[in-house]
Design goal:
The complex is a heterodimer of chains A (553) and B (300).
Chain A (H helix, E strand, L loop, with lengths): L2 E10 L2 E11 L4 E5 L6 H9 L6 E6 L2 E2 L10 E4 L11 H11 L4 H14 L15 H13 L5 E5 L7 H18 L2 E6 L2 H7 L2 E6 L2 E6 L1 H6 L4 H6 L4 E7 L4 E3 L2 E3 L11 E7 L4 E4 L9 E13 L2 E8 L18 E7 H6 L7 E6 L3 E3 L6 E5 L2 H8 L2 H9 L4 E5 L19 E5 L4 H10 L4 E5 L8 E6 L5 H12 L5 E4 L12 H10 L4 E7 L5 H9 L6 E5 L4
Parallel strand pairs in A: 3-8, 3-9, 6-7, 7-8, 21-22, 21-23, 23-24, 25-26, 25-27, 27-28
Antiparallel strand pairs in A: 1-2, 1-4, 4-5, 9-10, 11-12, 11-14, 12-13, 14-20, 15-19, 16-17, 16-19, 17-18, 24-28
Chain B lengths: L8 H12 L6 H33 L4 H6 L4 H34 L5 H13 L2 H12 L6 H6 L8 H12 L1 H14 L2 H8 L4 H30 L2 H7 L9 H10 L3 H36 L3
Classes of the chains: A alpha/beta (553), B mainly alpha (300).
Chain lengths: 553, 300
């Protein structure tokens, strides 16, 4: 491996800007770090270059641990967004800088410089000053300069950011060609997904300091694992759907979903439908099995090869949409059509159309949506307005449903609503919270979030499972939540388990009280006497607690 | 192949500026323009040119011979020597301090940074006489360290060290003030590039940082020098007015004037004016060089 990052964390003022990133980059690979601004990608690159120290974790280059090695001794080449050429030096002096530092002889320096200038197609520019070159040429010089000392690793920090589209494309091709010719391991940081697609062998997507997913461009595009990646990498319509034995049910339609259903139990999932997989037809009959909803064309944008449509759903209730709500909370679907499709069926704004789905991808995320549950409708609505819940739902691009259960928590009563509990069920933290949680768990809820009033967005998340059988599920749910929080994750140690021990809840409460703004993820396998055991933690508690329960097989 | 950019970019910019100025072609605007120029020129003539002309006129009132003869005086020569020596010590010391302070403020985050920035400005804000008094209070016979200094037979006040300290105090903001905004604006990119290319701290400073800030640095040095040679108030308080020993040129001029030796006083004054004029010429050359260098780097 050329670059190995192991649990790298960088804090600014106590807030992690790079949060527990582990990554292996192979020899000769061009790896693209992609993310919105402020996602920590540039900080991570600077940490690899040695310009920024790390607070935790280690960085190795070609197997050599360089975490504590000064930047000048790491032997990396770094290219900056604004070139950072030495403005008072000629192109030749710029390129030879690293060679002078290494006391290379003048003749050898000149030979190396000529070779590099040929590589970036700037022969004969030796005596120019940077100010006499165009932006694209300056960046070529910067690349040549960064390669002069034959670094083991080339790092590019948004190298095309300041260039116009035409030059950018040309320079991309040059850098790709140079990288292939030299076989040098390269990391490129960008916020431009098109750039990532055209350059990368593999892409790593970052958000809120975390490395969310790593994979080949086509893999990430067709099979994203998280909502963020699905919507950041290209456009995506997110639906709440049901996974059944037959496939993915969305409204009236049942579509064969990528992977075979994992468990026999029908459950809620988040389905990704790319705009190009949305079929647009005049009527539902034209779509047959694939029909999901009707809508009105709200917006049509011509963008060269493709036509982009925004279709407002008129009977969208059948297939709840997630990500694409406009300001007035009207759900709409984004679709693209090729020239060929446009000719076959011409559209105009305001036209009624039927929408179908050609292909769906189901996200493996265990938290599909939130459902607040309370004994009365006003209590449930108040709970749905809790700032932490609203923030989580907005960041996770999911919805908050409301469910009233008058008998909530009553030992002998069954749910009034026969529908199964889907997604995470949210209850308030009033007295008897533990009893309510147990009742929900008994009636099939897999995840229960006990939410105190006005809870702060957590800065630390404590993860604890009380049964080895629920370890996987607890970690999966935790990861799903943590992706959307700039919080530090702390994994709990082995805890005494089993029914006789009543010590677990006070111990957890003690640990939650240790720091400000903590949240607990707790996995439980056995829910016998749950209310009794967890009352000290949950009843009137001050911390958000997400209980993950999976019945023993 | 890209054409080299025209070197005279700022000149082009001014022409464009003038063209877009509203109403630049009307009679009224022409009148206003002449009026403004006339007022400022007459103001300049009354307040600047006339006094300077008086200096030379009075100095040469009795011809060239008495003028030159006044420089043969031992005390005058001692005053000139002291002033030049003070400048020669103070300016390099303040250049080093200014560089260090500007570096610290522009490149690092630390507690008390804003206090440091304010303190650097202090000598500009308080009266020079008070700057001198401070040193008397510290090192004078009845000052904090007075007894200790006397026991060890060290004289600071009414001696060369006092003059150096007072001059240093009033001139230390100039280099730092000039460099802080410049270094903050330039950022760290080039330094970081040099470091990743393997350069150490000194090499980065001399090969990358210093060439970038050289004109700003020189400008600060010139201002600092001008003030060091011309300082009167602070030096007057700490000097003790010992003829031939602690008298600088500005102090010497006052003494000669008070003795009704107008030719001598104005002769020394004319020399000081010439030195100031020389400083201004150098400053202008530096500004011009900076503008020429600044033009391409504006694109950065």
């Amino acid at each position: 491996m050329s670059i190995t990052l192991d649990q790298v964390t960088k804090l600014y003022g106590g807030v992690p800007v790079v949060n527990d990133v582990s990554l292996d980059i192979g020899d000769g690979e061009l790896f693209v770090l992609l993310g919105p601004s402020g996602s920590g990608k540039s900080t991570l690159l600077r940490a690899v270059a040695g310009l920024t120290g790390v607070d935790h974790g280690s960085i190795a280059l070609h197997g050599r641990d360089v975490t504590r090695v000064a930047a000048r001794k790491r032997g990396v080449g770094l290219v900056f967004q604004n070139y950072a050429l030495f403005r008072h030096m000629t192109v030749a002096d710029n390129i030879e800088f690293a060679l002078r530092v290494r006391h290379m002889r003048a003749r050898a320096r000149r030979a190396r410089r000529q070779e590099l200038l040929r590589l970036v197609s700037l022969e004969g520019m030796d005596e120019r000053l940077p100010a006499q070159l165009s932006g694209g040429q300056q960046q070529r010089v910067a690349v040549a300069r960064a390669l002069a000392h034959k670094p083991e690793v080339l790092l590019l920090d948004e190298p095309f950011g300041a260039l116009d589209a035409k030059i950018r494309e040309e320079l991309r091709r040059t850098i790709r060609a140079v990288q292939r010719e030299l076989g040098i391991t390269t990391v490129l940081v960008t916020h431009d997904q098109e750039e990532a697609f055209t350059m990368a062998d593999r892409i790593g997507i970052m958000n809120l300091g975390r490395l969310l997913e790593v994979g080949a461009p086509h893999e990430l595009y067709s099979r994203p694992a998280t909502r963020f990646v699905a919507t950041f990498l290209g456009a995506a319509n997110l639906f709440l759907a049901r996974r059944t034995a037959d496939g993915i049910r969305m409204g009236a339609a049942t579509v064969a979903g990528g992977e075979p259903p994992g468990s026999a139990r029908e459950h809620e999932v988040v389905a990704v439908v790319r705009p190009e997989e949305v079929a647009v037809a005049a009527s539902a009959t034209g779509l047959g099995e694939r029909f999901i909803a009707c809508g009105v064309v709200d917006e049509m944008v011509f963008s060269g090869a493709l036509e982009r449509l925004r279709v407002r759903l008129t009977d969208g209730a059948a297939a709840p949409l997630l990500a694409t709500m406009d300001a007035a909370a009207t759900p709409y679907v984004e679709a693209t059509r090729t020239q060929h499709e446009q000719r076959a069926f011409e559209l105009h704004r305001g036209q009624e159309v039927a929408l179908g789905v050609r292909r769906v991808h189901v996200l493996p995320t265990p938290l599909s949506s939130f459902t607040v549950c309370a004994a009365s409708a006003p209590a449930a609505e108040a709970l749905a307005r809790e700032p932490l819940l609203a923030a989580l739902a907005a960041r996770m691009k999911t919805r908050i449903a409301i469910r009233t259960e008058p008998q909530l928590g009553a030992a002998q009563a069954a749910p009034a609503d026969p529908a199964p509990f889907v997604g995470a069920t949210v209850v308030s933290c009033e007295p008897h919270a533990a009893q309510r949680a147990e009742w929900l768990l008994r009636h099939g809820a897999g995840e229960v979030l006990v939410l105190p009033a006005n809870a702060a967005v957590p800065q630390r998340v404590l993860i604890q499972w009380l049964d080895p059988a629920v370890r996987e599920a607890t970690l999966a749910v935790s990861a799903s939540v943590l992706r959307h929080l700039p919080a530090e994750a702390v994994q709990g140690a082995e805890m005494p388990t089993g029914p006789p021990s009543g010590e677990v809840a006070p111990e957890l409460a003690r640990r939650l009280a240790e720091a400000q703004a903590q949240m607990l993820m707790v996995g439980v396998g056995d829910i016998r006497r749950f209310a009794e055991r967890f009352a000290p933690l949950l009843d009137g508690g001050r911390w958000p607690v997400l209980i993950v329960h999976r019945a023993a097989p | 192949m890209a054409d080299p950019r025209p070197a005279a970019a700022p000149r082009g910019a001014t022409a464009a500026d003038a063209a877009t100025r509203p109403g630049s072609n009307t009679w009224g605007s022409k009148l206003v323009r002449w009026l403004f120029i006339a007022v400022s020129l007459s103001f300049l003539a009354a307040l600047l040119i006339a006094p300077v002309a008086t200096v030379f006129a009075t100095a040469l009132a009795h011809g060239l011979e008495p003028y030159l003869a006044s420089f043969a005086d031992q005390d005058t020569l001692a005053a000139i020597r002291l002033t030049l020596m003070t400048a020669a010590v103070v300016v390099p010391v303040n250049t080093l301090f200014g560089l260090a302070a500007a570096w610290a403020i522009a490149k690092f985050e630390f507690r008390g940074k804003s206090v440091l920035i304010t303190l650097i400005d202090l000598p500009l804000a308080i009266s020079p006489v008070i700057s001198g008094m401070v040193f008397v209070l510290l090192f004078g016979l009845h000052g904090w360290f007075g007894v200790w200094l006397e026991q060890h037979d060290i004289s600071i006040i009414f001696a060369l060290p006092g003059i150096l300290l007072a001059t240093m105090f009033v001139t230390f903001p100039y280099v730092a003030r000039e460099l802080i905004p410049l270094m903050q604006q330039l950022g760290n990119d080039e330094e970081e590039a040099a470091i990743t290319l393997g350069a150490g701290g000194w090499m980065t400073f001399f090969r990358v940082t210093l060439p970038r800030i050289r004109w700003g640095l020189l400008y600060g040095v010139i201002l600092s020098n001008a003030r060091a040679m011309g300082e009167f108030g602070a030096v007057s308080v700490v000097s003790g007015h010992i003829r031939g020993v602690t008298i600088t040129m500005p102090l010497h001029i006052e003494i000669l004037y008070n003795e009704y030796n107008f030719v001598g006083a104005f002769a020394v004054a004319s020399l000081l004016t010439l030195l100031a004029g020389l400083t201004l010429v150098v400053k202008n050359l530096v500004e011009r060089a900076r503008a020429a260098q600044g033009a391409p780097s504006e694109g950065a």
